[in-house]
């Protein structure tokens, strides 16, 4: 049934330039500007990516608008079939996609597979679009009058995604947007752009009509063009907080529906009655998985004084077993995304030490199982980090786990709630009452109870509070279908002569 040539075409060759994908095919656009795409494990440029002009974005939006005109009329059953077919293709060829993720992002292959699996979960959820786009019907709301609602697609929707999940985050949005009948223009991160083209080819193979899913690559120029374009109805953004705020403000000013997910600083509160081995495992997994480049990474452990020494010891013990290196070699942790980011992350270790923190495990300059030119920082553990330090207050987005010692629950809660971000958090305890208090009192969007990375399953929605989410719609789940559809309420009366007559008063129900 499937023609493999399209996907092979999309899988980037060593010297390839990554084109845009518009109207069902690779497209060069009109710009001379390009960006470097690195293999972070080698520290070397492996290909270039095109940077779109505003005119390129206009073209993609026009193609999407034309495609939308017929896609919105395609039946629910047929749209479901396309989503099912896409799911089958990705599942069958996930090794190919994982290789692309590892080569451009650096995350280890096992983690790349985890990313794909969590993205596919949302594709599977989107397959249930028949149930999720249903309206409601009230018969005889007034005598002889029925009122009902229906949900319709918005039109052309824009998606702007970050480097750290080049497959999963686009899937969070485009699967629901497409299933709901919209046409998409995706602007992926310029740092690891190839996964988007691979998925575009897979969607085409799944039977999605040309032009319903388009990819424009680039930087701020492309983002601004999407934000300002009058035919783009909504923007779904994921990235750092300053850009999320900018995207939210600019997009809403241009009259669009915007959801903009931002950065994070996720705390894990460990109470004295917790299982310390479980807590130490969780801190290491959630602190160093994907080299800490996850918005749901744990970056701060709040340890109650009485167990802090024991917990730090257990975490350090486990860190000694981690192998950092090339993601294709079965290592636990890969490199950071760029040389500049590596230097920034390493700089925070200096800052913390200068502010009085103890560097328990120093990942700078570690031996790696990989090319010495890769962008390496090994797992790093800081203890007694002052809460005034930038290393505590700011998002580091690297493999640096800070321990802050606290007196007890109240202290920990206050620290979490006084932070700028509210993405994820976790409590480790065997006291159900404490856990229940925590879920009521903590001002964070996603909470784990003895679970370190509480990314909700696809049929709930994903999103934080405060500086971690601008707008009121979270990603995927029920929020996803609401975001990508507009509701109409219809009040209808079929002719009944007894209800005729002139009445200029405001309609009342009889
Ligand atoms: P980023 O903000 O640098 O980039 C995100 C997107 O915005 C990219 O497509 C990029 O090209 C574009 N962009 C960058 N600078 C821009 C500018 N000045 N104007 C317009 N567009 C611009 O983020 P990143 O470094 O790719 O990703 C890491 C960040 O994303 C972290 O802060 C992380 O916490 C956050 N993140 C959040 C979530 C979440 O769900 N809350 C999920 C993943 C990542």
TrEMBL record:
Q: Does the UniProt entry include the keyword NAD?
A: yes
In this protein, which residues make up the domain named Aldehyde dehydrogenase?
27-489
Q: Which UniProt keywords apply?
A: NAD, Oxidoreductase
Q: What EC number(s) is this enzyme filed under?
A: 1.2.1.27
Pfam families attached here?
Answer: Aldedh
Which SUPFAM superfamilies would you find in this protein's record?
A: ALDH-like
* GO terms of molecular function: methylmalonate-semialdehyde dehydrogenase (acylating, NAD) activity
Under InterPro entries, the record lists: Ald_DH/histidinol_DH (IPR016161), Ald_DH_C (IPR016163), Ald_DH_CS_CYS (IPR016160), Ald_DH_N (IPR016162), Aldehyde_DH_dom (IPR015590), MeMal-semiAld_DH (IPR010061)
Query: What processes in GO biological process is this protein linked to?
Result: L-valine catabolic process; thymine catabolic process
- NCBIfam families linked: MMSDH
- The protein's name: methylmalonate-semialdehyde dehydrogenase (CoA acylating)
Q: Which organism is it from?
A: Microbacterium thalassium
């Amino acid at each position: 049934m499937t023609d493999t040539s399209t996907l092979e075409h999309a899988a980037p060759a060593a010297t390839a330039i990554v084109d845009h994908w518009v109207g069902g095919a690779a497209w060069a656009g009109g710009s001379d500007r390009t960006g470097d795409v690195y293999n972070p494990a080698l520290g070397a440029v492996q290909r270039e990516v095109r940077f779109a002009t505003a005119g390129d974005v206009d073209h993609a939006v026009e193609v999407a608008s034309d495609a939308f005109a017929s896609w919105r009329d395609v039946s629910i059953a047929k749209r479901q079939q396309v989503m099912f077919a896409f799911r089958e293709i990705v599942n069958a060829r996930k090794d190919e996609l994982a290789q692309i993720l590892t080569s451009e992002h650096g995350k280890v292959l096992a983690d790349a597979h985890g990313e794909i699996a969590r993205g596919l979960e949302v594709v599977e959820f989107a397959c249930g679009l028949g149930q999720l786009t249903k309206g409601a019907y009230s018969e005889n709301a007034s005598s002889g009058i029925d009122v009902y609602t229906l949900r319709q697609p918005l039109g052309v929707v824009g998606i702007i995604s970050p480097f750290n999940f080049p497959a999963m985050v686009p899937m969070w949005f485009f699967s629901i947007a497409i299933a709901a009948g919209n046409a998409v223009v995706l602007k992926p991160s310029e740092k690891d752009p190839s996964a988007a083209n691979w998925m575009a080819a897979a969607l085409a193979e799944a039977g999605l009509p040309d032009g319903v899913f388009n990819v424009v690559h680039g930087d701020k120029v492309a983002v601004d063009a999407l934000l300002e374009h009058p035919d783009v109805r909504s923007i779904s953004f994921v990235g750092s907080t300053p850009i999320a705020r900018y995207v939210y403000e600019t997009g809403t000013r241009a009259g669009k529906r915007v959801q903009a997910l931002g950065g994070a600083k996720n705390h894990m509160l460990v109470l004295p009655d917790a299982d310390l081995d479980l807590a130490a495992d969780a801190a290491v997994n959630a602190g160093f998985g994907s080299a800490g480049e996850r918005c749901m990474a744990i970056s701060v452990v709040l340890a109650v004084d009485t167990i802090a020494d024991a917990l730090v010891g257990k975490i350090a013990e486990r860190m000694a077993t981690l192998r950092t290196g090339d993601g294709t070699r079965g290592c636990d942790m890969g490199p950071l995304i760029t040389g500049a980011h590596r230097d920034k992350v390493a700089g925070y270790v200096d800052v913390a030490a200068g502010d009085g923190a103890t560097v328990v495990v120093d990942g700078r300059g570690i031996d790696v199982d990989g090319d010495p030119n890769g962008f390496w920082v090994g797992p790093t553990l800081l203890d007694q980090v002052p809460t005034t330090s930038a290393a505590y207050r700011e998002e580091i987005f690297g493999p640096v786990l800070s321990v802050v010692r606290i007196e007890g629950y109240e202290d920990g809660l206050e620290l979490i709630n006084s932070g700028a971000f509210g993405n994820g958090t976790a409590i480790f305890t065997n006291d159900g009452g404490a856990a229940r208090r925590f879920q009521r009192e903590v001002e964070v969007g996603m909470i784990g109870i003895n679970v370190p990375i509480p990314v909700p399953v696809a049929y709930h929605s994903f999103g934080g509070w405060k500086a971690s989410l601008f707008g009121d719609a979270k990603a995927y789940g029920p929020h996803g279908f609401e975001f990508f559809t507009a509701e109409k309420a219809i009040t209808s009366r079929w002719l009944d002569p007894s209800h005729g007559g002139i009445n200029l008063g405001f309609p009342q129900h009889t």
